[in-house]
């Protein structure tokens, strides 16, 4: 059989292939020749064939049929065979395949080999793909090599020990005696791998962490020697002495100093030296500075040192490298809660990053900008963020709008500013805001009594300019329905009032009903607004005509509203002014204490005659309901329906547990108000019975969709939603 081609010739041949199919044909032909050689037990060219097979494996072609040939090469006495065999084992084998267990005895023999390079091959293979069974069997040999005086073997044994600890953590104690003298080694390779081993042990065991804290002074000395030493061509990278070792030592110091006052005190000075003496013109120096900043922020460092670290991140923001700017923004975002004032000094630089072309930097800058907002800078920051909202990509608008809403709610200097800001957001990015933005703004406007005339005038102007932003249109329709009389009367004092007639207002609302841009929800708002204006405007006949037209609308929701409103005009016109009066102020009271949050919802029960109630609900033709035991009452004009509902006075309503799961208990209690018997107070008690804090606690109260308008007039329930975080 002719000698197989060499690896170099195979690489040259494959590179001449012009198409994928041609390359695949070459690979298949060579694989067939290699299989034939393996079947014939050709020891002469086994090493060459396995090397070619590994190259084809690196190209993505199957090479699993060479696994046993790798084991044969490992068992060979020739170093060249062992080298290719171990390389093949690391590439083709893993602990999921039982074949790798056949290597255990060979690796054990090679760990005790007289040649350091053979021992190094065995250590590399065990540290790369050794299973937990192999690690248990060979940990003793690794521990012996960790104590040897040979630097070449010690650095490889240290890395192999890291793999053993990851696979079998209970063997960590075995390597503890061998770590005593590791940091005294002069060889940088041994120092580097030793620090990696110590870091792994500290991360996995609190006992080891406490034990190795005594090494902090020694680590500080090593780091000081690195930054103060002169030029060393063997370890120099861009003018910095062994930056890889410096980064590893800083990472270990961060672990050792976290939560420990003494260790943190011992490393404060060296961290300050590294932060001030490291060259920043090269990326190598920036890597060391970044690791220094992380260490300063994690340990119990001095306040001046923390300010120095944040200033370093501030300088990173001015770097031309996008990766460095992104890293700086991410780090500042983590530290802004603990060092808010220090980060505030770099606010202008952070805001400038909103104009960056890189979307990742832009998003981090946006998140950090919202974290910097407070009562002192709310106006300036909102101006920048609103400008960003105008020009940013659609992917950012939803998050930016939500952030502006939250910041404005928390830090608004005045109600007018709050309303103007939210209206600006709705005008700019109304299609991207959250679903709860409309009811939240409605609640804000309702509670700002002195701003009603100003708000309705601003919203009316916004409708004349643009009706494409549906949330804005919905809020405007609601406000015009509630305060349309203020708009027509020109009572606005905050700005020059506009002259508008009742017909012009109705023209705008009717235009929303027929606009192709209006959603079904928006049309519902508009129709309800027109109905509300029937008690505020004198154009009653026009309003009746509009309402009657939509009684035959193909939109079921709109049709139902129109039919119910028509019923009010025809049968219950005497009740219409009371039912369509302005919404009262939405009062919300939150008490917190001992894990209990109490929220009171005020609901108004209009006084209705029994016959009105029966007519409103459609007479006595009610759907059959499962009967429950109720107190016996004398016959009344209402018949069975009043018996079913009980007395409208609601003298006593028993408490109710609405939710009891995962440690959260929500209970409802009911009582009538003494001054006004038509007001009932519903109190919700939310109790956390777990030991952990509950965050993002959200409660929403709303009338379900099944409650149409006639049934909703029984209870004029205010829509409220809020978030409570412990």
Share in helix: 55-70%
Strand content: 5-15%
Outline the biggest β-sheet: 6 strands, antiparallel
Mean pLDDT: 82
Structural class: alpha+beta
Please explain how this structure is put together.
The structure is a single chain. Helix 27 runs antiparallel to helix 28 (520-532). The protein is an alpha+beta fold. It contains 34 helices and 10 strands. Strand 5 and strand 6 form a beta hairpin. The strands form 3 sheets. Strands 3, 4, 5, 6, 7 and 9 form a 6-stranded antiparallel beta sheet that branches. A two-stranded antiparallel sheet has the order 1-2. A two-stranded antiparallel ribbon has the order 8-10. Residues 651-726 form the GAE domain. It is a peripheral membrane protein. It is found in: Cytoplasmic vesicle membrane; Endomembrane system; Golgi apparatus.
Brief description of this entry?
The chain has 726 residues and is an alpha+beta fold.
